[in-house]
Amino acid sequence: MTKLAYFPLPTDRVRAIQNGGMDAHGNAPERFISDGSGLSCRHCLSHIAAGEEYLLLSYRPFPAEQPFAEQGPIFLHAKECPAFDEKGSYPAMVKEWNAVLLRGYSRDDRLVYGTGQAVPPDRLVDTATAILATKDVAYVHARSATNNCYQFRIEAAR
C-alpha cells in the first residue's frame, strides 16, 4: 500500500495572515474566542481550545484563480502554532468527524472527475490511496463532508 503524506497550510502563508495579512477576498480575518466546540486550525491540524483566540477567513488552497479553485472559510489559531508534521499519519482530529470529503486534483490543479467521495474517517487512508492511484491525480484535498471547508492536502509519500 502507498504511504501517504498530510500537509497543512504553508507556514509562510499562515504567518502572513496571523501577522495582519488579508484573506483570499482581500479582507482582514475576523477574530473570535473559541468556545471549544471543535473548530480546527488548518496549520497545526488540531482543535482550537476553549478560550483561545482564532481567526476566521476565506482561503483558496490553489495557486491561481480558475474554475476549479474553490475558496471558502477556514480557521487558524490567532497566535503562532507549529505546523502539523506527522506526515505518515493523518491528523487525530479526523477520527472525531462523521465523514471526510476527498477529491483528487491533477498537476495543473484541476478536479479529476469521478474522484470525489465522502467516507468515514476509518476509510480515509484506503480511499485517498485509491484516488491517488487514479490516472491524472497528483494530490487529494480533504474537506469537511458537511460544510465543504478545506482541511488539508494528501499526497503519496516520497
Describe this structure in words.
Helix content is 11%, strand content 27%. With 158 residues, it is mainly beta. It has two domains: 10-77, first zn-finger domain of poly(adp-ribose) polymerase-1, CATH 3.30.1740; 86-156, no CATH class. The strands form two sheets. It has a five-stranded antiparallel beta sheet, covered by helices on one side. It is globular and about 40 Å long. The two termini are 13 Å apart. Pfam families: DUF1203 (PF06718).
Query: What does the largest sheet look like?
Result: 5 strands, antiparallel
CA-CA gap between termini: 13 Å
Mean pLDDT: 95
Radius of gyration: 15 Å
Give the ordered list of helices and strands. Answer: EHEEEEEHEE
Strand content: 25-35%
DSSP, total strands: 8
Shape verdict: globular
Q: What is the domain tally?
A: 2
Uncertain ranges: none
Helix content: 10-25%
> Biggest sheet: strands side by side, in what order?
1-8-7-5-6
Number of helices: 2
The structure class reads: mainly beta
InterPro entries: DUF1203
Protein name: DUF1203 domain-containing protein
Organism: Sneathiella sedimenti
